[in-house]
Design brief:
Blueprint: E1 8-13, E2 16-21, E3 26-31, H1 42-45, E4 52-58, H2 73-86, E5 94-98, H3 101-111, E6 116-120, H4 147-150, E7 163-164, H5 171-174, H6 176-185
Helix pairs in contact: 2-3
């Protein structure tokens, strides 16, 4: 099955660029890992029903968000909280974090109201064997040599483990409709 055309709009909050699908329902904030961008969530977000508001954020230096010399996880958690607050979503979000973004999602959850934190994938290069060809374009890392220095604090220690969905690196691309269905059960 080919992905449906996205029902998304693109916005900027401060220096963060994000896409939004839907205007009501449980908010789901989608965070990509190092060297990826918000487009990695497009196939799955397009599968969500109108009863979920999905927000896919480009972290600093990724996609269309401006780079920073240092991406302190506490500062980014605050920036993400301000973005979520500015969306006037009225409900605590579910955070879905890919790879290194687990650090940000855990820090956010420790400080701000959160329904749940879910992590997918792991850091480092990942094989795309289980990802259908049509979705592989969303899982290509953009190797910027400046990013590891800016995110150096994120690259030390083990990734936090919350609810972890899928052993493979990109379960949301392997089966976007199935992953969207799982999100509906988390509400």
């Amino acid at each position: 099955m080919h992905p449906r055309p996205p029902r998304r709009t693109t916005h900027t909050h401060g220096t963060l660029v994000y896409d939004r699908w839907g205007c009501s329902g449980r908010p789901v904030v989608l965070l990509h890992g190092l060297h990826y961008d918000r487009t990695m969530w497009w196939p799955m977000a397009a599968e969500l029903a109108d009863d979920i508001t999905a927000v896919a954020v480009d972290l600093p230096g990724h996609g269309e968000s401006a780079p920073r010399d240092h991406c302190d996880v506490d500062d980014l958690a605050h920036d993400l909280a301000m973005l979520v607050h500015g969306l006037d979503l009225r409900r605590a979000p579910i955070l879905i974090a890919h790879a290194e973004a687990a650090h940000l999602s855990e820090r956010f959850a420790a400080r701000y109201s959160t329904q749940r934190v879910v992590t997918v994938g792991s850091s480092g290069p990942a094989p795309l064997d289980d990802v259908p060809e049509v979705y592989r374009q969303f899982a290509v890392p953009h190797l910027d040599p400046a990013l590891p220095a800016a995110y150096r604090d994120w690259l030390t220690g083990a990734l936090p483990r919350s609810t972890h969905l899928g052993a493979e690196a990109f379960p949301h691309l392997r089966d976007p409709a199935g992953f969207a269905a799982i999100l509906h059960t988390l509400r």
